[in-house]
Specification:
The radius of gyration is 17 Å and the shape is globular. The protein is 41% helix and 8% strand. With 236 residues, it is α/β, with parallel strands linked by helices. The protein starts with 9 loop residues before the first helix and ends with a helix. It contains eight helices and four strands. α4 links the parallel β3 and β4.
């Protein structure tokens, strides 16, 4: 589990002298019967860790509880308010700037953290100094590059993409049974009002049976290529 936490020393970071930090933001929420509650945190850490390997970034430890209110009622799910999440982001950003790190990339692993978009918008009115990654387009490109059979809408939660990333980066966290846990619920217009319970009894919306370690590796390769655009914007 060491990949969830950075192990660099202060001396390492002094030598690196990164101008941009990367902050994984996950969640602690149900992912069906066979994926762990920390799935979104694992996804965010895998993506953040990969881009920190490929670019000169200060890798931060993850935020592990966020805005999972649509999953309320499923055992194990814990949330904080959007207000609290924004306050944590603002405090981290302020602390980084006090240390001379001017830019922040938020790697979001949970789709329900809508408030992160506003945090980025508010911080970039003068110049680009914060980014939310991956963007929807980056995820879509990664799916195509990896040969995924589902779209992001079809594969909303605990499906092909997340299982592929776990199979590649943390296969020991998956339990047997995900291969038969597919659940289709493409029509869900009132998700924010009625929550996940109205559209899935298992907690899954997607096709985890299609996941593979090879797809997971290809997704990370694609996202690393896409990150070049973001890195150039913040640190030209």
């Amino acid at each position: 589990m060491t990949f969830l936490l950075p192990i660099a020393t202060s001396a390492d970071e002094r030598v690196r002298a990164a101008r941009t930090a990367v902050l994984p933001v996950g969640s602690f929420e149900q992912h069906g019967e066979f994926l762990p509650l920390i799935t979104d945190t694992v996804v965010a850490c895998l993506v953040a860790g990969r881009v920190a390997e490929d670019y000169p970034l200060l890798l931060l430890p993850p935020i592990t509880i966020s805005c999972s209110h649509e999953h309320a009622g499923f055992a194990g799910t814990v949330s904080i308010s959007a207000r609290t999440l924004l306050a944590v982001i603002e405090d981290v950003d302020e602390s980084l700037r006090a240390s001379g790190v001017e830019n922040l990339v938020i790697v979001n692993g949970h789709g329900g953290n809508y408030c992160l978009r506003n945090a980025v918008q508010q911080s970039t009115t003068v110049r680009p100094r914060m980014a939310l990654f991956p963007a929807t387009e980056d995820w879509n490109t990664a799916r195509v590059d990896a040969g995924c059979e589902t779209t992001s809408h079809e594969d909303m939660h605990g499906g092909e993409l997340e299982v592929s990333l776990l199979l590649h980066g943390a296969p020991h966290l998956l339990r047997e049974g995900y291969q038969t846990a597919d659940h289709v619920a493409n029509d869900r217009p009132d998700l924010l009002t009625v929550g996940m319970h109205e559209y899935t009894a298992s907690g899954i919306i997607g096709r985890p049976s299609l996941g593979s370690a090879e797809k997971g590796a290809a997704v990370l390769d694609s996202l690393s290529r896409s990150f070049a655009r973001v890195h150039h914007l913040l640190d030209p």
